[in-house]
Automatic annotation (TrEMBL):
Lineage: Archaea, Thermoproteota, Thermoprotei, Sulfolobales, Sulfolobaceae
Organism field: Metallosphaera cuprina (strain Ar-4)
Alphabetized PANTHER family for the sequence: MAGNESIUM-DEPENDENT PHOSPHATASE 1, MAGNESIUM-DEPENDENT PHOSPHATASE 1 MDP1
UniProt-recorded name of the protein: Magnesium-dependent phosphatase-1
Gene Ontology MF: a single term: phosphatase activity
Pfam families: Hydrolase
Amino acid sequence: MIKLVIFDADKTVWDHYNISEFEAPLKLVDENVLQDSLGRTLKLFPNVRKTLEKLKERGVKIGMATWNFPEKTKAVLETLGLDKYFDVVISRDFPFKFIMISEIIKRLREQGMSVKPEEILFVDDRRAHFGNVWLYLGNINCLEMWKDVNDHMELISKL
């Protein structure tokens, strides 16, 4: 049984490839679209909000492991009103997802939740990250967004 779902951000949760280049202030264009001060836009993929709500309803913990500057990730999540869904967000300026996932597991343990690798689902748009996740963290379930699933709501059926 999956107790923790961890999402990548760029090209997994939203359509932009690198929010670290966004410049403040950020403004909401509509519920699922934001724009930075230079006019760059970011749009949530369909059903992201609905999927996060369903996960929460089921009591599943939600994490984010993203290769972005932490202050940029925080600003985007807050502007979109998504920060309330995530129990732990680890945003680092390096690509090593297995380290970020380890940090998420550690933070949850500090909050009193123990989770085994097979109880974790990691969703990323790049399969390249999965090898080190399995090598260093064990039998974590990994799904490649847009290959293994084509809509965020499909993730619910994978639980």
